[in-house]
Design goal:
The strands form four sheets. Strands 12, 13, 14, 15, 16, 17, 18, 19 and 20 form a nine-stranded antiparallel beta sheet that branches. 34% of the residues lie in helices and 24% in strands. Helix 5 crosses helix 14 and helix 6 runs parallel beside helix 7. It has 445 residues and is α+β, with helices and mostly antiparallel strands. It folds into three domains: 84 residues, 3-Layer(aba) Sandwich (Rossmann fold), CATH 3.40.50.20; 63 residues, ATP-grasp fold, A domain (Dna Ligase, domain 1, 2-Layer Sandwich), CATH 3.30.1490.20; 191 residues, ATP-grasp fold, B domain (D-amino Acid Aminotransferase, Chain A, domain 1). The structure holds adenosine-5'-diphosphate and magnesium ion (MG). The site of adenosine-5'-diphosphate has 15 residues, from strand 17.
């Protein structure tokens, strides 16, 4: 054992991990290690975890860097995802600085914050100057700012992943190119194309704006031909392309979060079963109540997409499962995802730690599920009843074996339907957790 190894710590084993490659040419330079062939070799060995996939990671691996703890991670966006990323990464020894226009944003409360609009070039310039590596917590990053940051800073996720996932049509084409199915769709440029699409897919079908939609906004479920004109007029006002999708009569909605490092290592978290109310995520149930073969297949598809898109960092994959066991991808998000919040207590590594590991080029963490869990979202209207219960919430441990874990994001105003926090309800079985959630009456409609 070398002297350095005797001193122990993850940092030392990381440097030996990098140096263990006989071809490696790693040189330690402050907090940053440039890895060339070492990373390429890691990519070759690690990506063999994913069966049957063309390994494209090697080219990107040439420019992979390892950003060690002590370095500063810049985040575009300062919401709850940034906050939880900063909490996880701070525990690993990283520093964080977020760019967000809202003073005292959720992430700004636990990290430094530059208060400025996302398209403010001077602010982005400052972020680039103060951070060793840059990531983002939302996908609608201004293209000009993204290009500028790529030029001035290290953005391991690149701009292509953003370009693809910012636009539903580009995203669907990329998923198909990775050999994974999406719901049948067509591009809609005018009302005649919409009419033709409706004739092709039948009713109901879903018209969506190609960019800018979230929580069901920017969509119209067309149930009757009489709605065609109004649906087109309304969504066309957004001034973006439109896409029409066949309505999938899904049995369940699932999601899988995959992580990929610049060296090409890929790991997936266990599939979550998601229940939405009014298009906003209400519950994530893990393990998903589907056959294990379906869980494995969903995870395999997510890994395939991460590989096919050459993603770095997290990529969340939302899927529809039909009654005859078919899986269609609905959409992607190149960042931590609400349906992955369950990992914070239920997995050996949280999605936030995994994202930090991935963008910093560290080996990815173990994604094993430690316990069944149900994540329930706390929206504005749930905050008061939840806080009233805080003093007694641990009593649930008598029933569940372990107390539910409450996470709140520090948002100032508890607006109706606004995501304010979540509770991870751990239990011996997901049914016990679901029963507790119902009985609290906090989430009554
Ligand atoms: N093609 C479809 N068939 C059936 N349901 C759909 C379809 N597209 C969307 N939905 C429903 O609407 C929800 C929100 O749609 P999604 O495309 O994920 O947009 P958002 O960006 O708002 O999450 C989905 O979670 C699903 O419940
Ligand atoms: Mg969605």
């Amino acid at each position: 054992m070398s002297e350095a190894e005797k001193q122990g710590g993850g940092l030392v084993s990381l440097t030996s991990w990098l140096k263990s490659d006989p071809m490696g040419t790693c040189g330690v330079d402050g907090c940053e290690i440039e890895v060339g062939e070492a990373a390429e070799s890691a990519a070759k060995s690690e990506s063999s975890r994913v069966d049957g996939i063309d390994h494209k990671g090697q080219a990107a691996a040439k420019s992979a860097k390892v950003i060690l703890p002590g370095s500063t991670i810049g985040i575009l966006g300062g919401g709850q995802l940034g906050r939880m990323m900063a909490n996880a990464g701070s525990a690993m020894g990283y520093r964080f600085i977020a760019l967000d226009p809202t003073p005292d944003a959720p992430c700004g409360q636990v990290a430094e914050q530059i208060i400025a609009n996302y398209d403010d070039r001077d602010a982005a310039h400052e972020l680039a100057k103060r951070a060793d590596v840059i990531t983002y917590e939302f996908e609608n990053v201004d293209a000009g700012v993204a290009a500028m940051l790529m030029e001035e800073s290290y953005v391991p996720q690149g701009s292509e992943l953003l370009y693809t996932t910012q636009h539903r049509l580009r995203e669907k084409r990329a998923i198909e190119a990775a050999g994974v199915k999406v719901a049948p769709y067509c591009e809609v440029g005018n009302v005649d194309e919409l009419r033709a699409g409706v004739a092709q897919f039948g009713l109901p079908c879903v018209l969506k704006t190609a960019t800018g939609g979230y929580d069901g906004k920017g969509q119209w479920v067309i149930r009757d031909e009489a709605e065609i004109d109004e649906a087109f007029e309304t969504l066309n006002r957004a001034g973006t392309e439109l896409v029409l999708e066949q309505f999938i009569r899904f049995e369940k909605e699932l999601s899988v979060i995959a992580a990929r490092s610049p060296q090409g290592e890929i790991r997936t978290f266990p599939a979550a079963e998601n229940i939405h109310i009014d298009n906003i995520l209400h519950l994530s149930i893990v393990p998903a109540r589907v056959d294990e073969t379906v869980q494995r297949e969903a995870e395999r598809l997510a890994a395939r997409i991460a590989e096919g898109l050459g993603a770095v960092g997290l990529i969340a994959v939302e899927l529809f499962l039909t009654a005859d066991g078919e899986l269609f991808v609905n959409e992607l998000a190149p960042r931590p995802h609400n349906s992955g919040h369950y990992t914070m207590e239920a997995c050996r590594t949280s999605q936030f730690e995994q994202h930090v590991r991935a963008v910093c080029g560290l080996p990815l963490g173990d994604t094993a599920l430690l316990t069944p869990v149900v994540m329930v979202n706390v929206l504005g209207e749930h905050v008061e009843p939840l806080l009233e219960r805080m003093a007694v919430i641990d009593e649930a441990a008598d029933r569940l074996g372990v107390a539910p874990k409450v996470h709140l994001y520090g948002k100032h105003e508890a607006k109706h339907k606004r995501k304010m926090g979540h509770v991870n309800v751990l239990a011996a079985q997901v049914d016990d957790a679901l029963a507790w959630i119902t009985e609290t009456n906090i989430w009554r409609a």
